[in-house]
Every structure is written in structure tokens, then in C-alpha cells.
Amino acid sequence: MKVIVIEDDLILCDSYKYYFKSYPDYTLEGIYNHVEDALENYESTFPDIIISDISFPNMNGVDGIKYFKEKDPNVKILLVSVHDDLHWIKSALKNAADGYLTKPVLKHELYNALNIIKYEGAILSTDVTKKVISSFQKKSLRIFTDREKDIIELLSQGETYKSIATKLYITSSTVNFHIQNIYLKLNVNSKSEALKIIQELD
């Protein structure tokens, strides 16, 4: 099967060249440093599988998926990225990526991923799978400590960090520490996101 790689890290580009020398079932048809370059030269390679990073200066790897699928609905796209947050993972899957691996990826891991995409259709690395499963599991207020519950209640009432600290007789830095733990447990990055999810908890 023919493969192209989209990657702007020159060291990783050399690694891909080395990897594919030992893959009997796959041929590396080209390495591109930008999504636009791969799209422009697509007809000259017409790959079966595309391996792409996400972060590029202009068009990112996730946005590029739809353009590759327009050229060939059957092409398989494997994203390989340092990004392991749910925003990118969900965006990739929503855009019909066939796989998502987090860097670094070893030679045998990449080969295994290619085989799975070739024969079975889709692959997620273990850490990505755990995050996706966790995001669908219903959370409960029981995941929070008593102090975190106190802070959640005051946040829900519109209190500021400073006023929460005053009411609970703790420092603002302690409030911030607990709030960061709350965000971590809810897998969110802002107060508005946290309160929206908390309203739905049992």
C-alpha cells in the first residue's frame, strides 16, 4: 500500500524514512512539510494511507482531512500528534480520521497501526482510548472531596476566588489549587465549562 507522510519535524521525517525501509507491505511515496503541499501533489502519489501531524502554520491536519476525503473517499488518514486533549481527538474523529496516535510512536507501533487500519479500519493509541472512554462515562458529585464540593457550591452562586477564600477561611492560592483539581476531574479548562457539566451531575 502507498503511504505519504505530512510532518514538519525534520528529525521525524528521517525516522519515517528509516521505519518504512523495514515495512514489507508499505511504500513511502512522499513526505510533505505542509498539508497544502500534500494536497497539491496528491494526484502524483494517490496514496492508500496518509500519516499526518496536526500542528502546521496554516491548514492543520484535522482540517485537511475533509479535503483529502474529497479527493478520495477511500483514503485512510492516521493522525500522529503530541496533542492528547479531547478537543483535538474529538475533532479528528468527527472529521472521519481513521486513527489517532500520540507521539512518540515507535517503529513497531506504527507498523501495527498501519496493519489495523489496512485490515480492520480504525486505531487509537491506548492513552487516546482511555480519554475517549472517560469522556463518555457519566460523572458524579461523588468524585469530589468535601472541600471541592464547598467550592463548587460557591462557584455556582457566582462567588469569585477571593470571596470563596474569605468565606471558607482559606487562601486564594488554595482556592485556585482546588479549582484546578475540579477542572482536571471534569476534563474542562474553564469555569463556564465546569458549571455546565456540574449542573448535569447526580
What features would you highlight for this structure?
202 residues, alpha/beta, 6-stranded parallel β-sheet, 6 strands, 53% helix, elongated
Structural features, described:
There is one protein chain. By secondary structure, the protein is α/β, with parallel strands linked by helices. Helix content is 53%, strand content 13%. It has eleven helices and six strands. It has helices at residues 10-20, 35-40, 42-45, 61-71, 86-94, 107-119, 126-136, 146-156, 161-168, 172-186, 191-198; strands at residues 2-6, 27-32, 49-52, 76-81, 99-102, 123-124. The protein has a six-stranded parallel sheet, with helices on both faces. Helix 8 (146-156) packs across helix 10 (172-186) and helix 9 packs across helix 10 (172-186). 27% of the residues are buried.
Quick summary:
The chain has helices at residues 10-20, 35-40, 42-45, 61-71, 86-94, 107-119, 126-136, 146-156, 161-168, 172-186, 191-198; strands at 2-6, 27-32, 49-52, 76-81, 99-102, 123-124. The protein has 202 residues and is α/β, with parallel strands linked by helices. The protein is elongated, with a radius of gyration of 22 Å.
Shape: elongated
Oligomer: single chain
Q: Give the strand line-up of the largest sheet.
A: 2-1-3-4-5-6
Radius of gyration: 22 Å
Q: Using DSSP, what is the number of strands?
A: 6
Low-confidence stretches: none
How much helix is in the residues? 40-55%
Q: Tell me the distance between the termini.
A: 50 Å
Mean pLDDT: 89
Portion of residues in beta strands equals 5-15%
Major beta-sheet overview: 6 strands, parallel
Structural class call reads alpha/beta
Number of helices: 11
Give the ordered list of helices and strands.
EHEHHEHEHEHEHHHHH
